Amino acid sequence: MLKLDISQVTGFLSADSLNKLQDSVNDANKSLYSKTGKGSEFLGWLNLPGNVSDNEINEINDCAALLTAKSDIIVVIGIGGSYLGARAVIDALSGNFNSLLHKNERKSPLILFAGNNISEDYHYELIQLLDKYDYSIIVISKSGTTTEPAIAFRLLKAHIEAKYGKPEAKSRIAAVTDKAKGALKKMADTEGYKTFIIPDDVGGRFSVLTPVGLLPIAAAGFNIKQLLNGAKNMMNLCAEKKPLDENPADLYAAARYALYQNGKVIEILASYTPNLNYIIEWWKQLYGESEGKEGKGIFPAGVNFTADLHSMGQWIQEGIRNIFETALRVESSKHSLIVPDDKENLDELNFLSGKKLSDVNKMAELGTMLAHVSGGVPNISISIEKTDEENLGGLIYFFEKACAISGYLLGVNPFDQPGVEAYKKNMFALLGKRGFEDIKQKLDKNLKL
Ligand code: PA5
Fold first, then answer.
1. What is the pLDDT averaged over residues 60-85?
2. Cα(386)–Cα(375) distance, rounded to whole angstroms?
3. What CATH number has the domain bearing residue 355?
4. Centroid of ligand 1 to alpha carbon of 265 (angstroms)
5. Beta carbon of 152 within 6 Å of any ligand 1 atom
6. Fewer CB atoms < 10 Å away: N or C end of the chain?
């Protein structure tokens, strides 16, 4: 079960500032559950964990099994909300060195990602690798028109068809997209790919518990039913009409908003285990795209401790005091490793002999928290019991629910992302896409071409 501790925040706030937010949090919940708030057409994620049927789960698992049976590698193509959630869960659950294992030592295919960048070298090197292995593709795009995944799919579709022939290639491709619109849907229908639908009312960054996340996660060999169960338990725990101290998502949203009102405009999410790095990346997208608009929003940053204590640690300890830190903790590790005793003690580490590494890590966590709090950085702590499907499902839903409440507390629409269009328009204009001629003229003028 997830535990939220805000005891190291209250000292930075006036005595009743959190209690004062109870009414605003109630209003935010009311808007959310009555679907009367901003962006209410995108609230499908709210009840999603209870709405995915056993049939859907079986269909996803069956498709994953088909792809898995014929693949050493599965390439998942997607960007943003169609990428980060799956990667976050797969990285968290896979062994740290899974990618280095021999294919026969791995229980499931290696999951690689594409379409999240336009790097020529990345895609060239991926294709070189795919020449040597059996592989399949899961291509994900809600709009079906996003440039980065479309380019990657064009490249890999040509490669997989040349490698296996069209009929076999078709059986190695699954698409996840809109039920009706977009180029990917059209292509999937024309080519006859196995297709999963993203519900209309679930936006990209809230879509990890739809086939967007579930299909790649199942293909990586993980239990999506347990992931959904964990999310469902959290959904029930964070339901409407609970006082702040009984509702972790609401309390997290209220604490960060109270800090924001006190000038803390940057939240740093810190993890102490490298396999959670992409949970941080997913969280950054969720909060960044949901809150950063209308000149408002907490800037979501991430650090990986203890590595970043030797780089960003200085800034956090003594830089501008406009930050707060949220530590993401895992109570038990999967394996046990003890620091060995050494008779000679040349490294002077015998004070740690016999201690579990996870206990040393916990003292690093505690020491860091105490140092940062005394340096003027409020600290929120989020702990999960262990890194498994159930706990990750709970963590995902917790962050989603808190993000929606946070957005409503700020007064923005947490479910749109108008700002991401600006770069796309410029890119299309610069690349000479039809319909963007006016923008091209303006850009040329700015660039003095
Ligand atoms: O959260 C979002 O909506 C975005 O990050 C999208 O997921 C991202 O732009 C990819 O869009 P699409 O799935 O339409 O290709």
1. 98
2. 30
3. 3.40.50.10490
4. 25
5. no
6. C
Q: Are the C-beta atoms of residues 89 and 208 closer than 8 Å to each other? A: yes
C-beta of 159 in contact with ligand 1 (< 6 A): no
187's CB contacts (< 8 A; 6+ apart) are 175, 193
How far is ligand 1, taken at its centre, from the CA of residue 13, in Å? 36
Sheet with 73-77: list strands edge to edge: 110-114, 73-77, 135-141, 173-177, 194-197
DSSP state of 16: T
Q: Are residues 161 and 129 in the same domain?
A: yes
Residue range(s) defining the domain that contains residue 329: 3-37+230-410
**Nearest residue (CA) to ligand 1, atom 2:** 204
Residue 189 has pLDDT above 80, yes or no: yes
For residue 241, what pLDDT is reported? 80
Q: Are residues 120 and 145 in the same domain?
A: yes
Which residue has a Cα nearest atom 15 of ligand 1? 141
Which pLDDT score is estimated for 240? 80
pLDDT digit string, tens, across residues 213-255? 999 999 999 999 999 999 999 999 999 888 898 999 999 999 9
Model pLDDT, residue 449: 66
Tell me: do 68 and 164 sit in the same domain. yes
Cβ of residue 39 lying under 6 Å from some atom of ligand 1: no
Q: Which residue has the least CA distance to atom 5 on ligand 1?
A: 80
Joined together, the tokens standing for residue 162 give 């040349």
How far CA 217 is from CA of 20, 223, 347, 352, in Å, comes to 41, 8, 42, 38
pLDDT value of residue 421: 82
Q: Indicate if the alpha-carbon torsion angle 127, 176, 215, 269 is positive or negative.
A: positive
Assigned domain for 432 exists:
no
Split at pLDDT 50, 70, 90, the class of 420 is: confident
427 occurs within a structural domain: no
Is residue 69 included in any domain, yes or no?
Answer: yes
CB of 143 within 6 A of ligand 1: the answer is yes
Give the atom of ligand 1 at the shortest distance from the alpha carbon of 149: 15
Task: For residues 210 and 71, state if they share a domain.
Answer: yes
Are residues 52 and 147 both part of a single domain? yes
Residue 123, pLDDT above cutoff 70: yes
State the closest ligand 1 atom to the C-alpha of 146, by its place in the atom list counted from 1: 15
Task: Please tell me the total count of domains within the chain.
Answer: 2
- Picking from 201, 222, 243, the residue at the C-terminal end of a domain is 222
Give the mean model confidence (pLDDT) for residues 2-18.
93
Residue scoring higher pLDDT (257 or 432): 257
- Global pTM? 0.96
Which residues are bridge partners to 303 per DSSP?
270
391 CB near ligand 1 (under 6 Å): no
Task: Find out whether the beta carbon of 81 lies less than 6 Å from any atom of ligand 1.
Answer: yes
Residues serving a catalytic function are 289, 310, 424
Q: Among 173, 194, 222, give the residue marking a domain's end.
A: 222
Give the pLDDT of residue 41. 96
Using the 8-state DSSP alphabet, how is residue 347 labeled?
T
440 in any annotated domain: no
- 251 and 140 in a single domain? The answer is no
Q: Are residues 98 and 118 in the same domain?
A: yes
What is the chain's mean pLDDT, rounded? Answer: 96
The amino acid present at 182, given as its one-letter code, is G
